Structure formats: structure tokens, C-alpha cells
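Case study B.
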Amino acid sequence: MTVTLADVAARARVSPATVSRVLNGNYPVAASTRERVLRAVDDLDYVLNGQASALAAATSDLVGILVNDIADPFFGIMAGAAQTEIGGPGDGSGRAGGEKLAVVCNTGGSPDRELTYLTLLQRQRAAAVILTGGAVEDPAHQAAVAAKLAKLADAGTRVVLCGRPPLPDGAAVVAALAFDNQGGARLLARHLLSLGHRRIGYVAGPLERTTTRHRLEGHRQAMREAGAAGDEDRLTAHGSYDRRSGYDATVELLRREPEITAVVAANDTVALGAAAALRDRGLRIPEDISVAGFDDLPFSVDVVPALTTVRLPLAEAGARAGRLAMGKENPPPGGLALIPAELMVRGSTAGPRG
Amino acid sequence: MTVTLADVAARARVSPATVSRVLNGNYPVAASTRERVLRAVDDLDYVLNGQASALAAATSDLVGILVNDIADPFFGIMAGAAQTEIGGPGDGSGRAGGEKLAVVCNTGGSPDRELTYLTLLQRQRAAAVILTGGAVEDPAHQAAVAAKLAKLADAGTRVVLCGRPPLPDGAAVVAALAFDNQGGARLLARHLLSLGHRRIGYVAGPLERTTTRHRLEGHRQAMREAGAAGDEDRLTAHGSYDRRSGYDATVELLRREPEITAVVAANDTVALGAAAALRDRGLRIPEDISVAGFDDLPFSVDVVPALTTVRLPLAEAGARAGRLAMGKENPPPGGLALIPAELMVRGSTAGPRG
DNA sequence: CTGTTAGCGCCTTCAC
DNA sequence: GTGAAGGCGCTAACAG
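Model:
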């Protein structure tokens, strides 16, 4: 049978309360007593019952990290960094002290699953929840999420947004760390413009995603400023955030506008697919056509030619979100921080041909 | 204050027991009663307390998935697939029914953290635990893990190994899905041998990892069979499973053995770093030197030249592990399945120069 | 410093 | 088909 705290108490000849105290280390306990208790714990191989203690103490050691796509390093890097801050380095004994259980939940980008996970986390009375990545812009869903988050916050769960813009109504979250997607896209477009490009195809992400919209807006803004907007819709093709989609969308762009001299992709993964499509059409990069991405994932520097892209400090942001979730760091003023993006110029972009 | 089941009962003018029954749907309840209860639930915005119900019912809806590196798509793909099987598609309402909470825990490859997570999961009385990826081969740690898993299994947690060889003493796990790393490495080496390569550098993963060892063994086996083993140690450089490490190790190999005509990397990410190092030395791939990886991650087909590698059915294996963990699928005979690897010949390998 | 006493919120026999 | 009662394993006041 499963050994309980009472068993430990009996073996150590103390009261259950005392055992609880040494385990949690929150109250003074005589050294000799503590030792006896710890020995009993070891002898009996006792493991605290998380649910029972959570129930009694009305606290939980679960922290949820929601990601849109766990197979995408974009999220993996943020989640990993957050988890490191939350889980702590471990005490080296493998015995687990007061660590939180930082746990990542993969929504697959589905609004339903996002809500489901939030409910599940609410059920567990999670200590904190971190939402990463762009949000779906459907108003109904946004309202549902906002309501859910409000309830979570109400119940004492610390809610942090990482790489996601603040909720429309500025709901009660501990903090929102938003990437400057728009500014980054603007930098990138200006770089291309300065090289002399005028007709630039844009492979956008899925519709109704904040990330997609902000990046696209930044791009178009810069194009308009330069008077090179052209037929924006014809120069834009939407897809999802994967390489296949980048490939297909690029083929489509090329069909519509064979004269484009550059392709900007919604992110690095998409850019990889775009580059493949261009090569398959016999175009050389960057001699015949330039390609750029976004995010600066680890592989981007290694592809050939190395990808010009916009760097987002994913690990730093994830770590900060983790600290915020743990209350180890003070929230930025107004609960909102705009995280800057940095242009990384590499070999995949050059002046237009001819 | 937080609304409890008793509140719902009061509002619906039934007993708490009845509310519990309609929520769990395990006992017959009059349709009219059920409706009244559900309305009360909605009115009050009631959310089940997971810990309390878990405590009372002695069951949990938590399923843990341990990964070595959450930023690595190798794990992301497996974890995502497993999570999909476990979490179910969601009922579309966002209300969360009997779903399990599939969560992924990032050990960062650290034995300590692995143990810590296992303990945390044990505390939560997890319904199931899936361990993915190679294991650390330190005997002490293996014993500790085996002991932990035995206890988990004992407490009713279903333990599944995915992409990890069975425990040394064949401990009580539901199933072990092991990749045929050795066979895959052999296929790859034979491919290179058949192209005429004889001096092949091998960039291995971290020491004392099953995955590292098996891949290396397969490689060496094939080389020996062909009488081309050479000075194995000189031709091998160890590193971690990242691109940086691949870069550095390749530089080192080139220093030691400038005459190598091919470099085989422990995985695709490492291969990317290796390729970068070769190019930086002015070597063309595959004209001057061939490069190959392992895993066939999504980006591998898109790099230039496309990477010759060994494909592992990561998503399929992850999904299967998920089903096994949920008891939705019968374990393979003997609880062990060897998952075959497939050679993917692409542009990065060719006959040796000259 | 340590023991005693109540619950935390829910599920589950057992009666009706 | 429904209610009443007890307890899941632990923590948190209180007393001493």
C-alpha cells in the first residue's frame, strides 16, 4: 500500500504535524527530531501526496506554459528557458524540494485546445500560467480567453504573456512581454528597400493571428513609406508557419508576380520552404532573388546562404516570463514590455539583379 | 470566494453526491436533475477542483512526458504527437471533459532533473509517464531511474519509454519503443562505403548516452565489416547534440585527419554545424566532402545541399507512446518494439573526390 | 519546539 | 434515482 505521512509519523514517533513541518521546512523543528523524521522518510520511501497537500494548503506547485507548436524551436526555446527559471536547477539529489512543476502544454494553435488547457490548469489551481506566442484574433475566442484568464488571476494564478500582445481590454495579467514584430518587420523591409528592391513578395503566416498581422503591418508600413507598396494583396500569400506552406505560397507568389526580386517570409521556417521553392524554379539566392525570414532560429545561420532575418531574444524573454511567473522579478511598468527585435543581415539578401 | 461543488448542489437543490454524479457521468441521474445541475454549474461558473477529486478518487489526470531538450524538434515532434493522443481533440467547447492533462517536462538532459521530475510526477500520482530520447548510461543513475519507475508503476502509473532502450533489468514498464539507432547508422555507413568512402569522420553525441553509443556502434560495425575501420578514435569526436558542437568537432576532426572524405554527424542539427565548418574551410559539399546526419528533421530536406540522413518516424512513435500510455493500444510482445530507421539519400553525399 | 484538532473539496459506499 | 456520512492525505491554526 501507499505509505502516508501518518506512517512516517508513527515510525518516527512524532505527530503528523511535525513530519509535515520538517518536510516543508517552514517551522522550527529540533535537529534531532528532524533527523529521525528524515530517516523514517527514507526508510519508508515516503513520497508526499501532491494533491493532498495542495488541497490542504490551497496552493499548487504546477505552472503551465502554453505553446502553439511544441515541435517549433521558436516555442521550444522560450518554453525551455521559462522552465529553467521555474523548475530551478534541482537540488542535485533528485529528491525534489519545493520546486514547482513547470509543464508545457501544446495547443497546436487551436483555440479550443487553448481553452481546454486553461480549464485543466484552472482545475489544478495552477500557481502560474504562461501563454506564449501569437494569439488568435477571433473576438469571441479572445473574450473567452480573457474571461478565463481573469478567473485564473482571481483564483490566485499568476498569468504572464510571453511573445504575445496584451489582451484587448488590458485584463489583469501579471505582465505581458510583447515582441516588437512590427518594428522588426519594418527594419527588414527597409533593409531590402535600401538594397534597391521594390517588388517584394511577402509570405505571411496564418490569418487572424496577432503575430502574422503585426509582421505584415510592419512590412507594409515600410513599403508605403518608401512609396513601393504596389498591389499589396497580390504581393502577399498566406499560409501556416511551416516550411511546406512557405514552399507553396512562394510558388503561388511567383505565379502571380514573376517580377518580384525578393521574398520575405513570416518566419525562418517558412523562409526555408520559400528558398526551396525558388531554387526548384532555378533561381539563385541571392543573385536572382533575395530571401529573408524572421526569428533567427538556430539553424538560420547555417543554411546556405545564411539567412537574413530578424532576431528575437527568445531565450531571454522566456526566462524573464518564468521569473515573472514566479514573482522573482518585478513586472515592467504598466505590466507591459515591448521586446525589441534586431535585424541580422546575412547572405540571403543582396541587391536586385540587373 | 471559490465556488465549490456544495454551492452548486445548493443552487440546484440536490445533494453534493448528485452533482458529483452528473459531473462524472458514471451513475444514472434523471435527465431533469442533470439539467438543473448543469445549469447551476454554468450559472456559478463552477470549476472542479482537480486536487480534491484526485485525492478522493485516488486517481489523477496528469500525464508527464519527459524530454531531454524541448528546443530540439526531435523531442518536440515526439512530444507533440504523444500529447495529441493523450489530450484528445478537445470537445470543442473548451470546457474540458475527462481529458488528461498531458504535460511535457524538460530535463535538459540532466540526470538530476530527470529524477526530480519523476519525483514531482510521482507526487502528483501521475496517470502515466512517457520518457523520451536516449538515457544517460551512468549505472548509478540508471539504477535510480529504474527504482523510481518501479515505484511509479507500483503506484499505478503507466510508464512508457519512447525512443529509449528498455531498462537494463527489464523493469516493469508498459512498453519500450526503441529506435533502431544502430541499424540506421549501419545503413548510413554502408551507403557511404558503397560510394567509395574509406576515411569517414564521425561527430558523435555526448558520451554515456545510449543514443550516442548505439549510433556510433552501428557506424563502426559497418566500417569494420568493410575493413575500413581505420583508427576509430582518431576519426571520432564527441560533442553535444547542437550545431555549435558539430562545428567545433568537425574542425577538430579536420585537424586530426585532413584526409577524410566524409563526415557523419550524430544528428541533423550537428550535421548542420559540421557542414558550416567544412564550408568555412573552403570545402564544397558534396564535391570535396560528403556530409550526413541522423533523424531527418523537417529542415533537413531544405538545406543546401539537401541532407542525406536516416529517418526516424518520430511522430508515429510519439503517437504510439501516447496511446500506450492511455491504454488505448496493446503493448508489443514482450513490451518491446524496435522501430526501424530508414536511409534517406540526398544531395549531401556523393563519391569521394578524385 | 511539538501535539491536537479541524477541515480543504470531493467521491463513494451504504441506505432509502 | 437520490441523500447522508465518512474519509482520501495533508496543513494550519491553536494550545501547550
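Residues 139-154 of chain B form the longest helix (16 residues). The remaining cases will be described in the next quarterly update.
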